[in-house]
């Protein structure tokens, strides 16, 4: 190339780059100045002129506050358990853990529980810190065992399916929030949809789908292990590997579904304050922890706990439920609902200190499910349209019809306004059950343009079209009932979460 050409070409390229950058900057500037599309007034929902109804009587008295377990301060913990020297933790692809009685395989946890889940993952539009729900109003102790909403304690035995067990137990509990009685979802049905030691596929393979009953397909460890892919090297495990799912079993369980795995919300970070709020609202939490070589409970009967540990494997984890908490002056403990049978801990449960949870949580999600069989005594389904209400009227949080606010600032719940004094402090009765009340607040978020008004029975939100593209106009109103009073987006749809 001639010298003159070699000198000119870089200058031309530099000029072209400058021109491109200027064009891009102008395009961005023009884009920023483009006014939002005027969608006009939103469709107005039908008005409900009937007087508000009082809530139904409580179906059962609020359970007594559980006796506080005798749990030590963090500095007084016993030493963590140690696996026997004769036990190897490398017999499974992703290690195993000593439970205090036996070895149980772990899941490979390099990837996210919600990997590949987009349309069914609920994303809050207004977070708790913005909404202003004060953690100080939460009860000192929550134990879902006392509410009789925890399902059975199961045993995963020698199958690396702790995530399937945690999902099934969370759905059992979610069903109880609708019906008052925990479900009994088939772990094998959950496992049959991914059947590998990679936790990333467990939720993605099941969310949005129906699940059958455990009586129609009970868990069997050898059968479950035989569904796993065969190892790349070495002998096949006892019972075989790489087998196809039993078509007859699958047909039987799918012909009689008991629930739909309807929703999952990722809890970002190990926020133990948020965990407490979720548990107080009635949710169980599926949490995956990095665990050491031994994860055995110690302490007194009735107050078994997992001692704090300072080292754990980064490549494997154990999924379990958090089903309660207790707050002392010396710290908070969370209640584990495990999948290692009833001989572990206190009949399958044990406490774990908040510092351990905060330090070793890999991921946490909450799950909701809808029972297939319903009756009039159950919590009603929500009917939420992308509409608005005229003037001071707001949507009923269940029916969607426009009605006046309740005296406490809440939207109506299926025509009902709450009555004070029926439940303990921070709780409210809307359906015959005391649930965690919404905060009594008003506010707005300048970042999103969303504004809200809340009372104990729920919240009403004013949502701009930019936040809610399915809104039929520039602004829409939506209401969410306690305890699911936070507005969220699941794919392109609005939903309510607690």
Descriptive keywords:
globular, 2 domains, 19% helix, alpha+beta, single chain, 10-stranded mixed sheet, 9 helices, 4-stranded antiparallel sheet, 498 residues, Cathepsin B, Chain A
Could you describe the 3D structure shown?
The protein has helices spanning 3-33, 128-131, 162-179, 187-192, 200-204, 221-226, 247-254, 272-280, 354-360; strands spanning 96-98, 103-105, 107-108, 122-124, 141-143, 210-212, 257-267, 285-289, 305-306, 316-328, 331-337, 349-353, 361-371, 394-395, 402-403, 427-429, 434-436, 442-445, 450-455, 458-464, 475-481, 486-490, 493-497. By secondary structure, the chain is an alpha+beta fold. The chain folds into two domains: 78-124 and 149-322 and 340-371, Alpha-Beta Complex (Cathepsin B, Chain A), CATH 3.90.70; 394-497, no CATH class. Strands 3, 5, 6, 7, 8, 9, 10, 11, 12 and 13 form a ten-stranded mixed β-sheet that branches. A hairpin with a 2-residue loop joins β10 and β11 (331-337). The chain is globular, with a radius of gyration of 26 Å.
